[in-house]
Amino acid sequence: MTSPAADAEAAFQRIIATFTSSAQPGVVVDSPPGAGKSTLVVRSSTQLAADGEPVMVVAQTNSQVDDLVARIARRAPTLRIGRLSRADYVPSPDVQRPNVQVSSDIRKLADCAIIVGTASKWVWVTEGRWPWAIIDEAYQMRSDLLLRIAARFDRILFVGDPGQLDPFSTVETNRWAGVPWDPMQSAVAALLRNNPDTPQERLPVSWRLPPSAAPIVQRAFYPSTTFTAGTVPEERSVHLPVAGVGAAAVDEVINLASETGWGFYELPARNTIRTDAEAVAATAAIAARLLQRGTETVCEESPGGRRLTADRIAIGAAHRDQVAAIARALRAIGGAASQCRVDTANRLQGAEFDMTIVLHPLSGRRDATAFHLESGRLCVLTSRHRHACIVVGRAGIPELLDAHPSVEPVHLKSLLKFPDGWEANQAMLGHLGQHTVPAL
Amino acid sequence: MLGIDERLAAIRGSSDRKRHNARTLAALTTNPGCARRAILDAAGVHKDKIAARVGHPTEIGKMSKIAVLRGTFFEQQVKAEGGAEMLRLLRAELGLPIEQAHYEDLGAAEVDATDPRSKREQSNESRYQLTRQAMRMTAGSGPDAGTMFASPMLRIAFGGVWVYLEPDLVAFQIGDKFHIVEIKSFPIIDEVADPGKVAGALRQAAVYVIALQNLMEELGRGRDLVSPEVLLVCPKDFTNQPTAAVRNVRKELAVIRRQLERMDQVREILRAVPQEVTFDLAADRQGRPTRSPADLKRALNQIPARYSPDCLSNCEMGRFCRSEARGSTNVLGRTIREDLGGVDSTSMAVALATGRLRPTDDLEETAHLLRTIYTMRADCLQGAS
Amino acid sequence: MSGLTAMARVLAAETGTRQAICTLRHLHVAARPIVLVPITLAGETNAPLAVLVGDDRDRPQLIVTNRPRVREERLRFAERLGAELLLPIANLARRTEVVPTTRRTTTVRRRAVEAPQIWVPNPAGVEFLRLLGRMTRFRSTVGQWAVAPSVPTLGIWATWFAEQSEFADSSVLVATTQALTAMWATGQSDLEDGNLAALMAWIDPPPGTSAADAAARAEDTIAFPPAGPATDPQFDAVVLEPALRDLDAAPDDQVRERVLARLASGLRDQMQPTWDRVWRAIDLLDAVPAAPHVAVRWERDRERFYAFADYLNTIGLPQARQDGAVRGARRLTDLEVRKSTFDAQRAYDDALVMAEYRLSGEAFRGIVVDADADRVVRPSSRRVRRPLITVTTRDPARLAPGDRELRDPQRPTQEAAVIDVESDGAQTRIRLELSGGLGSGTTGPAPSGSVPAVGDVVTYTRLKAGGYTHRGTFPNREDTPWTHGGPPAEYYVPTSHDAAEDWS
């Protein structure tokens, strides 16, 4: 039997070998939540650059680019790193390093061994061709964006998480449904449909998800791949120095989640407005209470335990008005709680925390829409945590799912979306049902 | 206390049982939250007759004669000459390495005039047995048995009885698996077909897949002998020439299986339905219903419906349920209630929005939202005039 | 659906009268619209049976396919429809004018003085035109299967109209039901609104009848034949099927003529009510004042119309069956850019549309309570005007310090950035720093009116209603990268196979 670390290392070596020797110009690496996707980008880019040829790294958002620049610059202090940016870009302190050069003009970065920029910035590069490119979060990149930049590179490594949210468009059209180069699909989908022989690798170990979460998330959202938790149950634990108050449900759900990794705080069934005040208050209260109780987390990074701080807690919701309402509730509570990260599933993609609290997208609703059922949304929300995830929702979600009409139109040649959002929601809810704490 | 089958029989009353088929079974997924529909379907009530009797005759299922004729013509053309056209499709359009194929028609049935059962019953049963036999032989005969079966008969248990199903074609021997073939008369133009019609065809095909899987299991051969990939055969572009597309119905299978398994739910719903409720039309000798519409309406009111405008195109009771739901936000759209913070009644929504009604505590938030919207709207309209 | 539209629906249901969801009309209504009401033969693929067409409401042209199942007759039908449509199109394309420009450029752009505008009853009518275009644009005018030149030309134009209608901002092809529901909410659902008869019954009930009753009556397909292109099954059984049978069995031309006359009259009865309803809908919409940006968008439609007519005169290849990878990516960008501009223009023009954005927190309206109009700062070497204003609002605004590029429709060239936000639950105070639209120079007071004054009502939003949007670069078609299948084959040129393509 091999260790997770050895498995992961073997996967890394295999990926690099495939990328540098494959007959195909593209290689796809599927990475489940927390499987070391960024580490893969950082390691492979520095390793390739160290061999003497420049490497272009393409990410989807400016903060992802900044994050990668900082990590690459730290890992390879002797290499010159270029940050391709907008003209009015103001570098964050983390990016301002001696070996980092910032420019909006690719020609001014000609000396750099590694150049990092967003895909939308690369669209403006009209000349030149580079031997190596690594595209991060490739499942969130749209096919049309890839079309516009792909010709700049000889070989491309596509790295991403297939379980997260698909890219979207502001227009609705079926015009290209099923066409292999449909501009609205993800970059990886376009690549694979036009190049079915593209090698597909995957990262086998989730270092983020605890043993209590990895198999659940895998079954619900990644039914066709396998991955395991990189840790064993003894390595991850949560302690609550301040005991709960009697039978208070908020404390109870925190207790349950710290023991089992999951908690479902169930409010009585009711059809509510989107910013359901009770649910919003409960979500904020759980975050505040986690901090109040002096929660400590033990993990392989801090075997002696460390105090859970606000920046290690994320609160996720489906809609922006819900995010705004929760943030308001946290500010009203005041103190450290107001420093917690509150965001939509969209913006939490790729991020990692110790504890997460999720306002269930279907809470308080009578009918689900495709938006609420999208499997990527629930997947992002329930796979950001290293220790525990607490979901807040109203009773009645299973009934809502059972009553959901299944009449979505089907485009003949479109890719089969798997897992289906309805099934994924059922699977996750089935699991959460065993961790229910009714609100009093 | 009656068993579930007796209860359903009593609900159906003296009328004959409405025969389900793949299309009506697939339709169970279009509004699975509706208790009224669940009971009427499970009991095999003729919803069209009920709807007509209560003054809301349905247009559902009404097809143009001209369209039906062409559909039949197309199906015959595809199946003609011992499946020659089908074979060509499997080879050319889908690139399948099929050397040759037997074509076996399972449509012939034996009917015994002295048998007390109805001719249809006998025919269904006889064809089912024929299909069963054919499947047993083929499933056991190894990888060389390339056979296409036309007009097979399958069955599935629903509402306490067997529902007989007639797939257009079962093709065997594409990668050692049975494949369901569904022939439809809507076109595939430049490889694109109407997504709503495709979805309907696939749901129907999924019912056949489940029935065939069940049969394989009964024969001890294993469900996985039946492929979740179905073949859809349609006219190509603007011609009468057939073309084919392969589509995996994994998702449809999951949804339909769940609905078929939810007969438990019918038991649950029945508990809340008074014993005396029946949809017996009490037909006279000429088959004319004698039951009063008012009485029938009272019976319908005893089982709650979950109306949404989609019902108008999916369920024979749609227009009746719409008239009953008048005054409810559900009549205006499936998500409108969510947009208005969960208020079910239009008059209450307006009363809260205009401030005419003081909200109860649990409606305070909703009322605030509605007032904000209403004020904003009123201000804008006033500013414009 | 948004909260405001939902509220309009509920109010319509409660009051029994249509409710405006815009204060202005955002669709161009042409002075001489062309109306086209098509119907097709059931069971066949877009087999035209008949159309009522024309720009004179009192004299619709009825075109009937003599034998709808016969391929040649369908082509004859296309030829006759071409005769109706292509002449007005050609005439309009000939009258052009120079597009005025402020930019110094040597190339002169032209546009048509007026563009054609076609109204069909519903989205299925748009689909009819799209498929008719697909059926006819690849036909050859020479060789064994030669058709009249007007047939492929009609196909290319039908395709152009159908493609334009995919863009949010185009008014050259209008689906009547959509035009009406963009203006008014009814007390019924989208599904019922899709039936033109029921929708018009709600919006414009006959005197003395309630909207709900009128709409309920309109569901009777015998008294209110469907708006097509699909026919009523009952009509098929009672009128169409016997007529087609008699047509096939007709022993001589005389009998044929009689049957045809009977068929034509039956078809006209099916289409005339829809024809009248579409014209009535045009009148109703025309009576609503147009929003300021309508004329701007119609100018662009006229420009595109002329450009396409010009292309047809020079290159003139039919549109491909399917977008290639590059074409698709370009089109998607165009669809998105034009939609976002359209959305913004509507909101700028129309307070009720802007209210949708205010409700969702993407815009806010409030009163200026404090203003420092003459503030000048020196962020770099240069001194610049940066007035500060403070606005209070009761809108559920969702803004954070650092949010930039907000604009007030009253001063579209000026940008605002959020300095800070304070909220007490009911009311929010937002401090904004303004830049641009302040004249030149930094001495003396800011030009009058360039900075909102205390007491002014202002609306700020991130929507951008105009100006040029940079789209970045796209590869050339022949440089389609390997990720998207590599360079496609040559431009699609119709083959003899297309000319021979079977129709039945």
TrEMBL record, chain A:
Pfam families found in the cross-reference section: AAA_12, AAA_30
Keyword Nucleotide-binding: yes
Keywords recorded for this protein, A-Z: ATP-binding, Helicase, Hydrolase, Nucleotide-binding
DNA2/NAM7 helicase-like C-terminal domain boundaries: 281-394
Domain of life: Bacteria
InterPro entries assigned: Coronavir_polyprotein_1ab, DNA2/NAM7-like_C, P-loop_NTPase
Hydrolase among keywords: yes
PANTHER family: DNA-BINDING PROTEIN SMUBP-2, DNA2/NAM7 HELICASE FAMILY MEMBER
Name of the protein in its database record: AAA domain-containing protein
Organism of provenance: Micromonospora tulbaghiae
Automatic annotation (TrEMBL), chain B:
UniProt biased composition (Basic and acidic residues): 114-124
Name assigned to this protein: Secreted protein
Region Disordered, annotated ranges: 107-126
From TrEMBL, chain C:
Domain of life: Bacteria
Protein name: Uncharacterized protein
Organism classification: Bacteria, Bacillati, Actinomycetota, Actinomycetes, Micromonosporales
Source organism: Micromonospora tulbaghiae
Spans annotated as Disordered: 469-504
